[in-house]
Amino acid sequence: MAQAQLANPEAIGSPYARIDGPVKVSGAARYTADFNLPGMVYGMPVCATIAHGRVVSINTARAESMPGVRVVLHHGNRPPLYRAASGSIDERRPPLDDDQVRYYGQYVAFVVADTYEQAQAAANAVQVTYDAQSPDVSPPADEDTPNTESTRGDAQSAFAQAAVRIDAVYSTPVETHNSIELHACVAHYDDDTLTLYDATQGVVNQRDVIAQMLGMGIENVRVISHYLGSGFGGKLWPWPHSLLAAVAARMLGLPVKVVISRAMTFHSAGHRPYTRQHLRLGATQDGRLVSIQHHYLSQASIRDDYREGCGEPTPRMYSTPNLSVCWGMPRRHVGAPTSMRGPGAVPGMYALESAMDELAWALKMDPIELRLKNEPDHDEGKNLPFSSRHLRECLEQGAERFGWHRRQAEVGTMRQGDEVLGRGMAACTWPAMRMPSEVRVTLHADGTARILCATQDIGTGTYTILAQLLSAETGIPLDRIEVGLGDTRLPPGPVSGGSAATASIVPAALSATRKAVRAAIKLATKKDAPYAGKSADDLVMRDGRLALKHDQNDPGVPVAEILTDAGVVSVAGEGQADTGADAKKKYSIASYGAHFVEVAWHAATARLRVKRVVTVIDGGRILNPRTGRNQIEGAIIMGIGMAMLEQTHYDHRSGAPVNSNLADYLVATHADAPQIDVSFLDYPDVVWNEVGARGIGEIGLAGFAAAVMNAVYHATGVRVRDLPVKIEDLIGAAVQA
Ligand code: MOS
Fold it and tell me: Most buried residue, 132, 200, 356, 581, by CB count within 10 Å?
């Protein structure tokens, strides 16, 4: 694919502020729970208080007699719901489907009442009796990894014969997505059409799946998600509360609002599953990898098959003749896990990059040098060339910016006041993905333009990026461009997931814009029009005007004037984009990067802080360095949470997630934020799309926790193999300030 010939190339790569910023900071942006419709009533789930067993009886008499109560749904009286045959959903069983309870907090009833408080009170009054069995929520520790994901050579023998070996087990805990915006859905059924205002990262998938589960045609379901208070993967696919809101709205003929509580978010709206990863690395004395074994367990729920693909990056990451990646999926009485930012690679790279650090220590080799020494010249897993891989430069540039060369290699030797400093690094990667997309662009007689797509902006900058793409082909300034997203009435767009939305939209947006411009040019070259007699190929749109392509002195004619003179109010163009499957057959396409972290360990008070971070990302062309940097910075803060704070604890007797609130489930806050230095290499990946964008939403979290733990080891001599690091892991450290 050729490099872009954009009419107004400066619109790409400039640090525009988010165009949706003003409505967000002024409170004008309406999030899902802000929608209030006439006659609206409120739904409240009733959550199981056991994690394993059966509902014996549900007594709703008291609840039904309470003020304002409209209906109490349960498995005995719920209207029909079906399983979706296509589309994505992680908890496949429809809510209230049978009397079985397979995780704590599973919805066993659903109360609808006139006010939120009435619904809550009545939900508390529903009496459920259970036949309870003891749940198993214990972290799996078996070694059963029967499924092979990737293999080459003979990893086991090569490991056995290797001069230097690392053999270690790493684990990552259950992590729960804690977006500031709670999960919410407002459902409204009218004239055979169901409208769902739904806090979702994917309006089109939400519509397709919910329509199938309700037994409705997709033309009769509309899903709207204009603004999202973050999702992190927790809002990628439908969860039971949205189905219940839809069922109740259809049944009652009234708008129904459901906002689930923070605790319910921990029960029944997904989590990153527990992983246990056994890494075995074998190397020669001079630091060449001869074998990598990455055998991992991804804990699943009883009924669903979500797997955290920890081994996804491993086969392409380093050169080695022998490799095996295998997995197992032990089942526990927990809610269905789901994607959390960087699913697979984030826990996977924690383990791999920790093991690489352990190997560097065993070899007495600098960890950057170890990585450089094992840099592959092609993807040895897929046996394909890399489209664009600049990990080497990320490592070198990051080392330079961080001052890595001033690091004293011995453990615990770098002091500052009464603290010990530790410096660690890790590499990161994230695969490139694309999803089918359609975009519609219209240019208007008043000089404005619109660009429309049923994708959504989850806070990452999609509104702004789409305006930039339209501007890049027209020169129309961003403040004259209206972007329409988050509504299934628009042309179907991608989910905001997999760091794929931007790369997916680019080809469709550029193609749609070019077709709209072409339509304007057609008017401009008609008889009596300003460019009558010219060929369409001679004209271009720049600065909002049509002008002669090869005559820079031609001031051109405003497109608004051409439309007005022709008596039309707008011209339109539509563009499509595919999944990029052809490019993926020929190339290994992924982003890379490197993290450098400095921690400070204050032994007297057992205080560990991340002080300073340098991250360099090779993410292809960065369309907007301001929104791009913000993605990486956010991922780094989330990475501090992953390394030091986040963990969902289950009570082994009840199976309940016990720290299901923001007081007990700790996430990183501003006070935990270090000094962060993010830079981008900005090599366009033109194999992937013509501007060369790959995606940057998730890569910043991959490898970050490893960089922190590698720094912790450098400071304290303690190797943390179970996240998050706890005070008790470090208080026995030999290194004391
Ligand atoms: Mo992301 S976990 O694909 O929202």
Answer: 200
